[in-house]
Specification:
Chain lengths: ~450, ~450
């Protein structure tokens, strides 16, 4: 785990004034990475770092000779269209560049003029998926989500026997991962037939979102090697918001016996800004288990993981319907939850994933699974909120939703805040449902 | 489907004499593609085409100006370390290069001397995975395998209701796909506990192989678009042998409710030579369904697919144990089967995969699933042969196997043969089990 250092000092202010606002996501203590270019141009995508409402263009800053030593090597790698090479460099290089940026962006920095010249307003930018994602794995780490879903299918036995021993996960689809802003096209597919009938076929009628986080892998491991629980966090570069769009009717008919497939692979969307694990260092939370639950097996256990294994990240889901948009109503919050309530830590996901020798590669993405919390109002997908559509939700403007309708936008937001630390935010991932193609 | 043309003429002979042998896999009618280099060198991997016991070095042949027009463009793309760009070019480019190679390698060709200078003996070559595989999907297309496996878990209901409607598939792991020849390290993992106990942990004791074919995707589709059943074969570049190594004890404990994960992701191996769909054109077989079974939904149905939807590919599995190796015994055949007995065609897999708008990319790999046949001796995994280890197999030399032991090599072979066509073979994928790491 990256240690606290001068970059986390809550008293630091930036000469980019918008970074110092009370509710700013992109404070000088955050410094998240994305792949961007000026919108409407054919510029190459390149790495950038957010500060307030601006982006430090890392290619321009590197070309201007602003960085030196390891920070310059890191900036060179991070200036490419995809951040894989930068992710592969590891925590030392990430920290060197972060420190150089923190110092350069501080009030009074001698580099203010040079860095100022590289800034691109976020309002003028568009984003790419920030890495070439070799493999995408989705986990199932919220026992509250697993219980809510399991109780729909197995009311008396919602949690399967393996759940409390194994961080359950499955391979997802890499190709259909997209960035915030793109439309999500309602998928077509087969649905469960009535007894004796042929299956239905057509646009999904039970389209849903899932609030998740995505962990980008930094340095990988060779096939056959494992990553121990104490080494695991050094293999995580950072965290994004992730919407695991789901067609419940397609999923329900297809998923036995080999798991989710076309009910998921039509679209997964992520927020453009990767908040580094180092930026999250002030927001650790202990890993605990209910008293009656088993402790993890030895390979998933370490004192460090117990004391600070979780991340205290506050999460929210909002909906903005076509009607709300026309009314000028702001998005309505559907739920809120916190990553620290997950049953398994990020480190445990990495270690479990490699315990069989499976090789992770820089830029691989690990989804946490739907991050529902224990309380009412913390259900992180419509299937949970509406009890599989049986208890439709009435929005404040009178609209009713069992599942998503065309024109609905879903917005995921996240941030970290506590006394004695500066706020660190994730921005958002916002995508709108487009009608099915015929 | 590529039409029959002069490259399929069974009377063609090559000036590479080994291509004309009776049991030659790599006849002049075959011309499969791989990524290779001279073993023990640091040469870049590049595309090659097999002819007899030789390889046409496409980089050298292209540099020598042997090809012209579209064939030259195709050879340029195919000379790269990974064949993705060549795969993306589509059937016209593939056919042009194939025709140029067929003409150049024929007895009496004026290009004999020029091509001869590019040949590398296969004995001197090593191979790479021939494409950068963006996503790997594994299907479950043998109803015989599904029945054999299902009956182990659900004796009265082995085939689930969706099986006859949906080509069942799941996302596999891309990173751990390797080529024939590498050792497969026995994975560690959790296994199902006795009642009230903690799960077991350690090396898998139920390590198994699965005989499959892998389909390499050619041109892809944009996210949101679909590939119709009539277009589907134009999106398949070619076919390899695929061993879907499986740790049954890890798989059995982890796979509910989201499907196979660590029980598979430690290793998948493929044969180096991709046999093109064009080379397989003489070996089509009709798609049929048992009379009482439902016909596929409209999007999975076309007359062409019915008449010639399947591929008649004969498949075999062999084992070579450490003891057999020491005795000088040849590998013993464990089973034989045929791809034409699959329940779903290759075209149906492509169309179903994209019906929700999921984007396929050039170089993606689709596994067929374990290709067991209907008869005794056609069970394409040990879990089927030994009834999950309950009926151990006694080899000819007296050794007994429930599952694989360290030092066992598994060899998959395949070929096409019929009257009036030249033999087209796949070579083999052969990998040996190495002990688990501690």
């Amino acid at each position: 785990m990256p240690p606290l250092n001068e970059t986390h000092d809550p008293n630091l202010k930036s000469w980019v004034a918008t970074a110092n606002a009370d509710a700013a996501d992109f404070t000088i203590q955050n410094l998240p990475f994305a792949s961007f270019r000026r919108v409407g141009t054919n510029e190459p995508f390149r790495g950038g770092v957010a500060i307030g409402d601006q982006i430090v263009d890392l290619a321009a800053a590197h070309a201007a000779g602003i960085f030196s030593g390891l920070a310059a090597d890191a900036a060179d790698a991070a200036a490419k269209p995809a951040l894989n090479d930068f992710m592969a460099m590891g925590a030392g290089a990430w920290a060197a560049l972060r420190l150089a940026l923190s110092r350069g962006l501080r009030e009074g920095s001698a580099q203010q003029d040079a860095l100022q010249a590289t800034l691109v307003p976020q309002d003028d930018a568009e984003y790419a998926v920030p890495a070439q994602i070799g493999d995408y794995t989705d986990f199932y780490t919220s026992i509250h989500h697993a219980t809510n879903i399991g109780s729909l299918f197995r009311p008396n036995n919602p949690i399967l026997p393996n759940y409390k021993w194994i961080p359950i996960g499955y391979h997802g689809r890499s190709s259909s991962i997209r960035i915030s802003g793109v439309d999500v096209i309602r998928p077509n597919g087969q649905t469960r037939p009535a007894e004796g009938q042929a299956p239905g076929f057509g646009p999904s009628r039970r389209l849903d979102y899932e609030l998740e986080l995505g962990l980008f892998v930094g340095p990988g491991n060779a096939l056959g090697d494992t990553i121990s629980i104490d080494e695991a966090e050094a293999h995580i570069f950072g965290v994004v918001l992730l919407n695991d769009w789901s067609a419940r009717d397609i999923q329900g008919w297809e998923y036995q016996p080999l798991g989710p497939f076309l009910g998921k692979s039509f679209s997964t969307t992520i927020s453009p800004w990767i908040v580094t694990l180092e930026a999250l260092a002030p927001f650790r939370a202990p890993f605990t288990r209910p008293e009656d639950d088993p402790q993890p097996l030895a390979y998933l256990t370490s004192q460090d993981n117990h004391d600070r294994g979780h991340l205290d990240i506050q999460l929210e889901v909002f909906i903005l319907t076509q009607k709300q948009r026309q009314e000028g109503t702001p998005p309505q919050r559907l739920s809120h939850s916190n990553y620290k309530d997950a049953y398994w830590t990020a480190a445990q996901l990495v270690t479990h994933h490699t315990v069989n020798g499976c090789d992770l590669r820089p830029g691989d993405l690990l989804g946490t699974g739907t991050l529902s919390g224990p309380d009412e109002g913390q259900q992180a997908a419509l299937i949970e909120i509406t009890r599989s559509g049986r208890q439709p939700l009435t929005l404040d403007n009178g609209e009713v939703r069992s599942f998503l309708e065309d024109g609905d936008a879903i917005i995921l937001r996240g941030h970290c805040a506590r006394d004695g630390a500066a706020r660190v935010g994730f921005g958002e991932v916002k995508n709108t449902v487009a009608p099915a193609k015929s």
